[in-house]
Design a protein that fits this description.
Layout: E1 11-19, E2 27-29, E3 33-36, E4 42-49, E5 56-65, E6 73-78, E7 84-86, E8 91-100, E9 110-119, H1 121-127
Parallel strand pairs: 1-9
Antiparallel strand pairs: 1-3, 2-4, 4-8, 5-7, 5-9, 6-8
Length: 134
């Protein structure tokens, strides 16, 4: 069943954003850190932009520290699950919804979620079906 919220425990979740090589445009989180109770779903928005005159496709690759925390950090919704298409000059907010598992070991009080933002426009185009609709 749904996990209970642990009201008397607080875990800090920090967010780090970085851009892969050759990526243009901002990629940031709305907040640098949040205090959460285990079992409590939390939403944080990330922002990215395509500053160019061409469509682009972005992909965020997440990592979590300490690595033992990955077992207890559950993303229920994340912009990192899929490629993110951007129109020319488009900027948008992209949410992640996560829950820290109440079973997180007591000695872990801070989790750091890092996202690296890549431009995968070329790869995405190569993966697309070759059929063109006129």
């Amino acid at each position: 069943g749904p996990s209970q919220v642990v009201e008397d425990r607080t875990v800090t979740v920090e967010f780090i954003t970085q851009r892969g090589e050759g990526v243009n445009g901002d990629f940031t989180s709305a907040t640098r850190r949040v205090e959460v109770h285990p079992g409590e779903p939390t939403t944080v928005n990330f922002y990215a932009e395509n500053p160019t005159a061409e469509p682009m496709v972005g992909q965020a690759v997440p990592s979590l520290a300490p690595s033992e925390g990955t077992l207890y950090f559950h993303k229920t919704e994340c912009f990192c699950f899929n490629n993110q298409p951007f129109a020319p000059n488009e900027a948008k907010a992209m949410p992640v919804v996560f829950v820290v598992d109440p079973e997180l070991p007591d000695d872990v009080d801070t989790l750091t979620l890092s996202y690296t933002w890549f431009d995968v426009t070329q790869t995405a185009a190569a993966d697309a079906p070759a059929t063109r609709v006129n």
